[in-house]
Amino acid sequence: MSHQSELIATDIGAYLAEHERKDLLRFLTCGSVDDGKSTLIGRLLHDSKMIYEDQLATLHVDSTTMGSAGDQVDLALLMDGLKAEREQGITIDVAYRYFSTARRKFIIADTPGHEQYTRNMVTGASTCELAIILIDARRGVLPQTKRHSFIASLLGIRNVVVAINKMDLVDWSENRFDEICREYREFSKGLDLGSPYFLPMSALLGDNVVDPGTELDWFNGPPLMEYLETVDVATGIDFEHFRMPIQLVVRPDLGFRGFAGTIASGIIRPGDEVVSLPSGVRSSIGRIVTFDGDLDVAGPGRAVTVTLNDEIDVSRGDLLVKASDQPHRAHDVDAMIVWMADVVMEPGQQYLLHSTNGFSNATIAAIRHRVDINTLEHQQASVLGLNDIAQCTVRSDRELLFDPYSENRHTGSFILVDRLTNATVAAGMIVGAASAWDRTPETGLVRHVSGIDDTERAIRYGQQPCTVLLTGLTAAGKSTIATALERELFDRGKVSIRLDGENIRMGISRDLGFSAEDRSENLRRVSEVARLVNNQGLVAVAALVAPNAEVRGRARELIGSDRYVEVFLDTPIEVCRRRDPNGLYEAADRGEIAQFPGVSAPYERPTDMDLRLDTSVQDVPECVSEILRILGDRGFLRG
């Protein structure tokens, strides 16, 4: 329904042109049961004069027989269309309403509050840019409030209004409003929700919905409608990375062959070089065709048909991208899963995975952790039940083309479908390619045990096996100290192996780059080698930047805490820059080296290291002596 305008009567063409230029905001209302979601939307429509007279008349009649607002018109009945909803006074299904004002067009999704209908909330939120999370001022933050807030964060909604409703039932208390704000802020610290807008209101009476009202003079912020009309939702739109899933091959005659779809992200122009994935065949854009004529440029959300300057094979389910900017590709991905089926999910079951690049056969290979909605803590889980949210490893028989969901909601999402019932059982948001840390080996493999036990090796070598990881920024002195430590161990008659980061890169990791994923895989390979070396009774000395704290923790787990010694070279970056013999820091400053720890990528300082050294004030012999001391104290060296 559109806003009232004089142009409708005087110049319908001008009105339609004005209407077309408005941007569109999709938002949802969510929260716990009976927090007033449907009433709020009804009030928005009513006070904005967006209800037809016959609808309003019917609403007055229905309010007397099915309403729950006393003498007031029950505006919730505008949204609760199912008979069961009206009888129980709750929302079950997702209800959508369209309206517009002079500034903006809106699509509202009214989502249910019951936990058993969480899957409906996920459906409604999946396309929204803003969430209104309602809280009953009498009850405060409830478990379902937390669940919906977490899902909004999970689905990448960064614009959030925390609407504290029913303020009339707590005597318009400013203290109660502040108390709920503090409670919500404390809970949401671990969520990525931007800066929520806290708003006191009464949806039933209309205060702070469209007009400020008379009872909340202590609140200085704009009412809800003004905020919805002015909030900036364009900042999250990706204009850089071009992605266009092909939905249809258009062939009206022998002279035209086009590829239709909606641009998910990025900008495209005629002449731009593109690649069709998964085939990898290149061409360039010939025309950008629409019903209204050819375009010189097209961006996110635009439905277009493009022609290519070369006759290449492009089919439904393929993905057009810029040749210089391609998405990730993997059979195994880590994803956040919202389980939406009554049937329990056990790893290993077969499903159909539907994403932007079509269908594939898939399994949930492993459950990494389940999220406790109330505390946001990670819990171990062997199965998933209805409405559980967990990080899982998903394995597809067809290579998936994707961007992380945090970067692109279109190419980073998928659903899982039951192969027998054709029901959607899960929604997935891809975190990234599954790490090799979590991959299970092929079945049928058996780990062979040596005929020489640990005691025999300890007596022969005069040592207990361990792995020393030297971690720190580039030029902190890792390789220098590792080499000196190796020499000292050798002179003492000990048996060790040195795993230098640069040597590893020239050998077993020559296929890896320097992204966070590749650095993680590099440390995994080194850790596997170190574990094999330790099993042979030797000391492994590894010198790596290893910038990610979680990945270092996984190395500790793989090798075993009882055999692992982490040494942090806490050398100031200014000293590292002065020492740098190859000019890597200067190259990183110029942008010639991407994702360089300490410059263009983070280095996460260890908090649980076994030993801290500062090579700007401690010389090499002193550092080696400190490492030998801790190895001796922990019983790894004898004599």
Q: In summary, what is this structure?
A:
27% of the residues lie in helices and 26% in strands. The chain is an alpha/beta fold and 639 residues long.
Report on this model:
This protein has 639 residues and is α/β, with parallel strands linked by helices. It has four domains: 7-230, P-loop containing nucleotide triphosphate hydrolases (Rossmann fold); 243-322, Translation factors (Elongation Factor Tu (Ef-tu), domain 3, Beta Barrel), CATH 2.40.30; 328-433, Elongation Factor Tu (Ef-tu), domain 3 (Beta Barrel), CATH 2.40.30.10; 454-633, Rossmann fold (3-Layer(aba) Sandwich). Helices cover 27% and strands 26% of the residues. The chain has 17 helices and 26 strands. A hairpin with a 2-residue loop joins strand 8 (248-253) and strand 9. Helix 11 crosses helix 17 (620-633) and helix 13 (516-535) packs parallel to helix 14 (549-559).
Instruction: Summarize the biggest pleated sheet.
Output: 8 strands, antiparallel
User: For the record, what CATH class of the largest domain applies?
Assistant: Alpha Beta
CATH superfamily of the largest domain: P-loop containing nucleotide triphosphate hydrolases
Query: Which residues sit in consecutive blocks of at least 5 with pLDDT less than 50?
Result: 80-93
- Return the structural class: alpha/beta
Q: Work out the strand percent.
A: 25-35%
Oligomer state equals single chain
Number of domains: 4
